[in-house]
Amino acid sequence: MTTRVALVTGGTGGIGTAICKRLADQGHKVATNYRNEEKAKAWQAQMKADGYDFTLVKGDVTSPEDAEAMVREVEKTLGPVDILINNAGITRDGTFHKMSAGQWGDVINTNLNSVYNVTRQVIEGMRDRKWGRIIQISSINGLKGQYGQANYAAAKAGMHGFTISLARENAKLGITVNTVSPGYVATDMVMAVPEEVRAKIAADIPTGRLGKPEEIAYAVAFLVDDQAAWITGSNLDINGGHHMGW
Ligand code: CAA
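Output (C-alpha cells, whole complex):
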C-alpha cells in the first residue's frame, strides 16, 4: 500500500490516539497538533514506548493562523497532507437556558470552525494532486440531540453538513469526504459525565457497553483505504446500536 501523510487533529485524546496508531499501523506517516506542550511531550514519549513515532506540531485549531502554520510545518517535516482527520473536539455541557455565550462559542469554535480552519489549508493541495481523504469525527449526539448539548450537537451536525458539501465539490478529483459518528466511547470525555447520568446512558446501549477507541479507529482506517474510493459524502454510525435509523 502507498505510504501517505496523515494529519489527525486532537490526536493526543482518547479516540485521536487510537486513530493515530491505526493509521501508522497501515503504513502512513502521522502528525497531530497540540496546545499544551508538557502534555503533548508526555504523550509522545508514551507513544514511543508503544513503538510509534508521531510528529507533533504546535497549534490551536480554533485559530486560522495556527492552522496554517501547523499544516505548513507538517508539509515541511513529512510532506503534503493527503489524509486529514478532523477529530479535535470539546464538550461544555449544560442545559441551553443556562448556557453562556462562552460555552456556546468555545464548542462551535473548537468542534466546527476548526474544520474550516484546517481543511482550508489542505484542500488545494489535495485538489492539485487529485487524491485526498477528509474525515470528520462527529457524534451520535449530532444526529439524535442530547439533553445538555445544544452547543455540541449543533457543531457535530454542522460537521456533516460540511462533509456532504465538500464531498460534492471534490468528488471528481479523487478526494473523498466522510463523517464518522461515534456513540459513547470509553474516553476521558465520556468519563467526565456524572456517573449516575453515564450509567443511565450506558443502560440504553443495546450492546451493553461503551465503545472502545479502537472500534472508531477501525472505521477511519476503512474509509482512508484506496479501496474506499467510491464512499463519499456518507456518515458511518458506530454506537453499539444506541441510535439506529436509515
Ligand atoms: N432527559 C430528561 N431530563 C433530564 C435528562 C435527560 N437526558 N438529563 C437531566 N435531566 C433532568 C434531570 O432529571 C433534572 O430534572 P429535575 O430538576 O426535575 O430533577 C434536570 O434535568 C437537571 O437539569 P439542570 O439544568 O439542573 O442540569 P444539571 O446542572 O443537573 O446538569 C447536564 C445537566 C449537564 C446536562 C447533565 O445532565 C449531563 O452532564 N448530562 C450528560 C450530557 C451528555 O451526555 N454529554 C455527553 C458528553 S460525552 C460526548 O459528548 C461524546 C459523544 O460524542 C457521545
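Strands lie at 5-8, 29-34, 55-58, 83-86, 132-137, 175-182, 235-238.
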